[in-house]
């Protein structure tokens, strides 16, 4: 067991151990290297960092010990996320579905055999993707049409999935399909584990407005899935999917907000030291102060989301939607500000930058992943209005 | 004097419920409209009740007959007063108490704080403090051997017992009620839930001179920014709730207008602003209570941000009501007018953001981070 996990019963020591490990393990030049990286190098970089985490027991530390984890609590995850942000550690977004959504689904709904087999794979580095959205089923997810037809002890799948992050690198997919086209739309859905290397699975990357291709379109033609790969009962997939959607309890958003806070601080220190022009512009300086205020408010809200995430009220709370609305729009405003103050140099084509906000147009364009993904902000507004404010659904 | 640390949240929640209960009962929409139309003395009645319940002593230490509930106690009081758009000179009097406590000598504190805590006297303070010049030139009052002279627009009621204001290099307390050389004239404002007065002094004898001008000015600005931010957060939430309740009853095209998605999305955006406002107030109260080096940054920004959110929200609430939102009979205009006054009180928002920016630069150069949450 690593010295980090040995300290798990003493949270301050646990934090200190992680901090010490990160000081050693995070290469000073990783951002510079990623800024010049090809897509393949970018992916390789994520796998490398996940392997480093695994060495010290920080790949799946939040899972129960019997499935290869260390049984850490939410408090530990908050510490880990906070320290990763503080150290500006490399990101491992490619593993989000593997580490959070898959276990969040299998623990409540999976069979013992599914848990043993697939969680062990994740612990070794398997990449999973999510096959939920379809070209005609985005916000109205329950209208999905990808068909699964029973054929003996297997199901045959035909259809199309979209917006599936890192699907071109994935080993497995958590897949929503329609098994009963005659039932009411929420009641005819079944949930499967699909091998991404099965015959009939084709993935095409989708290039985003920011120049990168992180998600893909999945085409499924007569793909055969063993019946034992169904999670939950037939036609009960919608309920299982709720566990998937609820599995992220705010830690990712928390880490994102903390990273942004450090970036803003570093950016501000540099501006102050160099007496940047925008600091002397009344309008821009005041605008920036407004961002700081809203950023602090958002960080406080996220701490409340985390605090309430383990209470019975969490499932009915609209606080996560309010945070998403506030934080993603703020992110857009900050990146818009950075683009404006960068002048013509800010229009030079560049992807990831070494310096915080060193590639403002990339950041500005990437900010749409916040306002659109994970339930568009329009859907979040519906949730706030209907569940939070009690405005009627008509 | 001990600096109050964070007060137990359960105590504060009980306090909030008790204040809210009284105000909801005494200062509902009907009572408020009657007061605005000059039919009642709701402001006096509420003040008497506030005094008897000890509200005016929330922020005053126990040794001066207050309840010692600190800035969090004041935050709750101002939030709840804002919720009901309660009339009365609370901001002026309670903030004067904070400034006297911070910058007054022991003799001055003993002379004034117990009377404020008991609700015996009401204060007048400058409506606005100018940054950088807030000690020397903002007031337009001068102090000579003959006394204090000059004119000043003040937040406070026509029957204010005293004025706390800068005069030359110091701050002075000048008695207003029946004192020689002191004259006050009420100013009719759009916001009828608060009062401003023009104070005219000619060789008025100061009742006290506060030499620690910077200490008084800083404490008064902090108290005013916190009070107005809390008032704005409470008031904005209340008018939003009233507006959404109205939208659920108002039928058009055969359905409640609350069912229209265009309006739902507007309401959700208001709710998002309200959540941000609450956190801005909480953060400013927290940093100020802790005496953090960055306190001034967050109190200044809290006032600037929350008052602008309040103006936006109150404006949208008029619009979301449709025709009746534009009438004197409904509530939105009361809150909109309160919002517009809040926006300009204490210090203009651009100046407050500059004030926060200067403090941020100082804090950063001194090697501190201003972004720690301490949570």
Detail the topology: elements first, then pairings.
The complex is a heterodimer of chains A (394) and B (375).
Chain A: H1 3-6, H2 11-25, H3 30-35, H4 39-55, H5 74-86, H6 96-109, H7 112-124, E1 128-131, E2 147-151, E3 154-165, E4 172-178, E5 189-195, E6 201-206, E7 215-226, E8 230-231, H8 237-246, H9 251-273, H10 282-308, H11 319-342, H12 360-366, H13 368-372, H14 377-388
Chain B: H1 9-26, H2 29-36, H3 42-52, H4 70-83, H5 90-103, H6 106-117, E1 123-126, E2 141-144, E3 147-155, E4 162-167, E5 170-175, E6 182-187, E7 196-204, E8 206-210, H7 213-249, E9 251-252, E10 255-256, H8 261-290, H9 295-321, H10 332-344, H11 349-365
Oligomer: heterodimer
Q: Biggest interface and which pair forms it? A: A-B, 44 and 44 residues
The CATH superfamily of the largest domain in chain B is Butyryl-CoA Dehydrogenase, subunit A, domain 3
CATH architecture of the largest domain in chain B: Up-down Bundle
Query: What name does CATH use for the topology of the largest domain in chain A?
Result: Butyryl-CoA Dehydrogenase, subunit A, domain 3
Portion of residues in helices of chain B?
40-55%
Form type of chain B: globular
Number of helical segments of chain B?
11
- Can you summarize the main beta sheet of chain B? 8 strands, mixed
pLDDT < 50 runs, ≥5 residues of chain B:
132-138
Which consecutive residue ranges of chain A, at least 5 long each, have pLDDT under 50? none
Mean pLDDT rating of chain B: 94
Counting H and I runs of at least 4 residues, what is the number of helices of chain A? 14
- Look at the helices and sheets of chain A and give the structural class: alpha+beta
Q: Which architecture name of the largest domain in chain A does CATH use?
A: Up-down Bundle
**Number of beta strands of chain B:** 10
Estimated share of beta-strand residues of chain A:
5-15%
Task: Give the SSE string of chain A.
Answer: HHHHHHHEEEEEEEEHHHHHHH
CATH topology of the largest domain in chain B: Butyryl-CoA Dehydrogenase, subunit A, domain 3
């Amino acid at each position: 067991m690593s010295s980090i996990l040995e300290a798990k019963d003493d949270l301050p020591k646990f934090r200190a151990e992680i901090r010490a490990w990160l000081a050693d393990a995070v290469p000073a030049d990783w951002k510079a290297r990623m800024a010049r990286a090809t897509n393949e190098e970018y992916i390789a970089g994520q796998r490398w960092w996940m392997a480093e985490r695994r060495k010290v027991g920080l790949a799946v530390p939040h899972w129960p010990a019997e499935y290869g984890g260390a049984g850490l609590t939410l408090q530990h995850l908050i510490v880990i996320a906070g320290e990763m942000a503080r150290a500006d550690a490399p990101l491992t977004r490619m593993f989000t579905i593997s580490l959070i959504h898959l276990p969040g689904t299998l623990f409540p709904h999976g069979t013992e055999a599914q848990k043993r087999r697939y969680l062990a794979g994740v612990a070794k580095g398997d990449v999973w993707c999510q096959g939920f959205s379809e070209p005609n089923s985005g916000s109205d997810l329950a209208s999905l049409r990808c068909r699964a037809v029973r054929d003996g002890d297997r199901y045959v799948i035909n259809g199309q999935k979209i917006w599936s992050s890192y699907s071109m690198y994935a080993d497995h997919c958590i897949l929503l399909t329609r098994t009963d086209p005659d039932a009411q739309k929420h009641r005819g859905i079944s949930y499967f584990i699909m091998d991404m290397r099965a015959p009939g699975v084709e993935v095409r990357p989708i290039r985003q407005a920011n120049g990168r291709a992180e998600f893909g379109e999945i085409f499924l033609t007569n793909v055969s899935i063993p019946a034992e790969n169904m999670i939950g009962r037939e036609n009960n997939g919608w309920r299982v999917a709720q566990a998937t959607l609820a599995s992220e309890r705010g830690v990712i958003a928390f880490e994102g907000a903390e990273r942004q806070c450090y970036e803003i601080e570093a950016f501000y220190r540099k501006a102050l030291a160099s007496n940047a022009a925008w600091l002397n512009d009344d309008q821009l300086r005041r605008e920036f102060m407004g961002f700081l205020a809203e950023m602090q408010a958002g960080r406080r809200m996220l701490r409340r989301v985390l605090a309430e995430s383990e209470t019975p009220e969490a499932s009915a709370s609209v606080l996560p939607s309010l945070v998403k609305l506030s934080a993603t729009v703020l992110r857009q405003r900050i990146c818009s500000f950075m683009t404006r103050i960068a002048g013509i140099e800010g229009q030079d084509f560049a992807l990831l930058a070494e310096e915080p906000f060193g590639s403002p147009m990339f950041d500005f364009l990437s900010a749409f992943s916040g306002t659109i993904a994970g339930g568009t902000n329009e859907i979040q507004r519906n949730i706030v209005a209907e569940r939070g404010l009690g405005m009627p659904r008509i | 004097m001990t600096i109050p640390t964070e007060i137990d949240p359960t105590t504060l929640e009980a306090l909030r419920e008790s204040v809210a209960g009284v105000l909801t009962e005494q200062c509902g929409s009907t009572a408020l409209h009657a007061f605005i139309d000059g039919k009642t003395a709701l402001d006096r009645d509420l003040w008497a009740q506030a005094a008897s319940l000890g509200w005016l002593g929330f922020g005053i230490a126990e040794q001066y007959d207050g309840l010692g509930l600190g800035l969090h106690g004041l935050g709750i009081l101002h939030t709840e007063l804002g919720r009901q758009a309660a009339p009365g000179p609370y901001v002026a009097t309670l903030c004067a108490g904070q400034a006297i406590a911070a910058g007054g000598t022991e003799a001055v504190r003993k002379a004034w704080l117990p009377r404020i805590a008991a609700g015996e006297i009401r204060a007048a303070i400058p409506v606005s403090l100018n940054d950088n010049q807030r000690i020397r030139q903002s007031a337009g009052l001068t102090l000579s051997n003959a006394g204090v002279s000059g004119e000043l627009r003040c937040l406070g009621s026509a029957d204010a017992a005293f004025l706390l204001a800068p005069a030359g290099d110091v701050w002075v307390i000048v008695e207003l009620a029946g004192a020689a050389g002191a004259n006050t004239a009420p100013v009719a404002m759009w916001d009828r839930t608060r009062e401003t007065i023009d104070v005219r002094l000619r060789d008025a004898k100061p009742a006290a001179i506060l030499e620690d001008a910077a200490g008084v000015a800083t404490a008064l600005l902090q108290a005013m920014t916190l009070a107005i931010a809390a008032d704005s957060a409470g008031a904005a939430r209340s008018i939003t709730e009233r507006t959404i309740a109205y939208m659920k009853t108002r039928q058009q095209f055969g359905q409640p207008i609350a069912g229209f998605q265009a309006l739902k999305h507007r309401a959700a955006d208001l709710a998002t602003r309200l959540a941000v406002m609450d956190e801005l107030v909480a953060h400013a109260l927290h940093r100020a209570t802790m005496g953090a080096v960055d306190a001034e940054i967050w109190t200044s920004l809290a006032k600037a941000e929350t008052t602008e959110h309040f103006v936006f929200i109150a404006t949208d609430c008029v619009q979301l009501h449709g025709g009746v939102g534009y009438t004197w009979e409904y509530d939105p205009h009361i809150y909109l007018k309160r919002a517009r006054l809040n926006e300009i009180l204490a210090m203009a928002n651009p100046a407050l953001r500059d004030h926060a920016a200067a403090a941020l630069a100082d804090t950063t150069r001194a090697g501190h981070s201003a972004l720690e949450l301490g949570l």
